[in-house]
């Protein structure tokens, strides 16, 4: 009996001396400098949701969806949060990337200007000046918006420049509107001026296209299936938790990055993002569970208007998978 107790004690001491299993280090690269849309990732980390899944998450800011997609393709980032149509353009050219979850299933694209200019509907754009960034995703879809709303290029003037120039044009009164994301550029304008912005949303006029999602290197996914499942499950929980506490989620951005913006506009920007998570078809689903039809429609739109190679229409499912998402409805 004494011998058994001693052996058990030794076993317990050996077990206690063993180090806890190390968490998997994961790098998530964002599409851009941090803004309200990114709140769930910071909130998930702050609330310990990733840690509970055995993930040590590092969040890195990005310099555009194309650059983040390249980083994921090169395996310098494990996951990316990017504009999925931008990822499609890279994938069709051979980049080994795939979306493991599509978060924004309704497009945030819009034409926006100061609310006090009273530009509320497409016909109000007539006679106005619109600031654009040539070749960006919104400018590529802009002709479809014009077609859907009966506007012509001759109905308004345009000024062109990079992202900051476009913002400055509206802020300084050189343009009445700009093409931007409802939760991004509108908040930057409000931060700079304190004035409210009104967006005319492309999605309200029948332009149904996915936007941001999580991507990974296809080889990384195959080699790390369990980790990908844990990451997507944790990120789903993080989004659901952030939806319930928008201000706390926005505050988690500032806690991690004190120069990340202002709490009011970070919160408002995130609140504007939440309705984009679901379509009527996915309103009862947990985040990221995109439908095949939504993705097929998005591919078709990108082929027709967004410069995507026509061969993409042969197999839209090559660009995404729902296989690593947690099951069940919200």
In short:
This protein is of the alpha/beta class and 330 residues long.
Instruction: Round the Cα radius of gyration to an integer and report it.
Output: 22 Å
Structural class: alpha/beta
What is the tally of helical segments?
13
Describe the strand arrangement of the main beta sheet, using strand numbers.
2-1-3-10-4
Mean pLDDT score, rounded? 92
Low-confidence stretches: 1-19
Query: H/E series, N to C?
Result: HEHHEHEHEEEHEHEHEEHHHHH
Please describe the biggest sheet, giving its number of strands, its sense, and whether it closes into a barrel. 5 strands, mixed
- Estimated helix fraction: 40-55%
Describe the structure.
Helix content is 42%, strand content 16%. The protein has a 5-stranded mixed beta sheet with strand order 2-1-3-10-4, sandwiched between helices. Strands 7-6-8-5-9 form a 5-stranded mixed beta sheet, with helices on both faces. Mean pLDDT is 92; it is low at 1-19. Strand 6, helix 6 (137-149) and strand 7 form a beta-alpha-beta unit. The protein has helices at residues 2-17, 39-46, 49-52, 65-73, 84-92, 137-149, 163-171, 185-193, 218-223, 225-244, 246-256, 263-273, 292-305; strands at 24-29, 55-60, 79-83, 97-102, 109-114, 129-132, 157-160, 177-181, 197-201, 212-217. Helix 4 packs across helix 5. 46% of the residues are buried. The chain has 330 residues and is an alpha/beta fold. The protein has 13 helices and 10 strands.
Sequence-ordered SSE layout with sheet pairings:
Blueprint: H1 2-17, E1 24-29, H2 39-46, H3 49-52, E2 55-60, H4 65-73, E3 79-83, H5 84-92, E4 97-102, E5 109-114, E6 129-132, H6 137-149, E7 157-160, H7 163-171, E8 177-181, H8 185-193, E9 197-201, E10 212-217, H9 218-223, H10 225-244, H11 246-256, H12 263-273, H13 292-305
Parallel strand pairs: 1-2, 1-3, 6-7, 6-8
Antiparallel strand pairs: 3-10, 4-10, 5-8, 5-9
Helix pairs in contact: 2-10, 2-11, 4-5, 8-12, 10-11, 11-12
């Amino acid at each position: 009996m004494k011998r058994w107790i001693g052996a058990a004690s030794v076993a317990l001491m050996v077990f206690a001396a063993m180090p806890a299993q190390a968490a998997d280090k994961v790098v998530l690269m964002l599409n851009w400098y941090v803004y309200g849309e990114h709140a769930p990732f910071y909130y998930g980390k702050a609330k310990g949701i990733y840690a509970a899944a055995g993930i040590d998450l590092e969040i890195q800011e990005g310099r555009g969806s194309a650059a983040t997609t390249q980083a994921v393709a090169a395996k310098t980032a494990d996951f990316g949060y990017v504009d999925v149509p931008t990822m499609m353009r890279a994938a069709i050219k051979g980049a080994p990337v795939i979306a493991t979850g599509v978060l924004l299933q309704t497009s945030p694209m819009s034409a926006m200007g100061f609310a006090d200019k009273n530009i509320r509907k497409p016909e109000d754009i007539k006679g106005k000046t619109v600031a654009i960034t040539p070749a960006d995703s919104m400018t590529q879809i802009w002709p479809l918006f014009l077609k859907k709303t009966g506007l012509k290029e001759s109905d308004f003037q345009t000024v062109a420049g990079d992202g900051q120039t476009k913002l400055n044009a509206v802020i300084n009164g050189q343009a009445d509107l700009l093409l931007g994301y409802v939760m991004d550029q509108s908040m930057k304008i409000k931060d700079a001026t304190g004035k409210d912005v009104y967006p005319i949303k492309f999605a309200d006029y029948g332009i149904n296209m996915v936007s941001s999602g999580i991507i990974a290197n296809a080889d990384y996914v195959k080699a790390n299936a369990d980790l990908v499942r844990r990451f997507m499950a944790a990120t789903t929980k993080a989004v659901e938790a952030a939806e319930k506490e928008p201000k706390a989620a926005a505050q988690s951005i500032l806690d991690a990055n004190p120069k990340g913006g202002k709490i009011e506009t970070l919160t408002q920007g995130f609140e504007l993002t939440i309705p984009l998570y679901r379509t009527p078809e996915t309103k009862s689903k947990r985040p990221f569970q995109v439908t095949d039809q939504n993705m097929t429609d998005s591919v078709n739109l990108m082929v027709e208007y967004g410069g995507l190679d026509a061969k993409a229409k042969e197999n839209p499912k090559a660009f995404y998978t729902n296989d690593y998402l947690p099951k069940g409805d919200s």
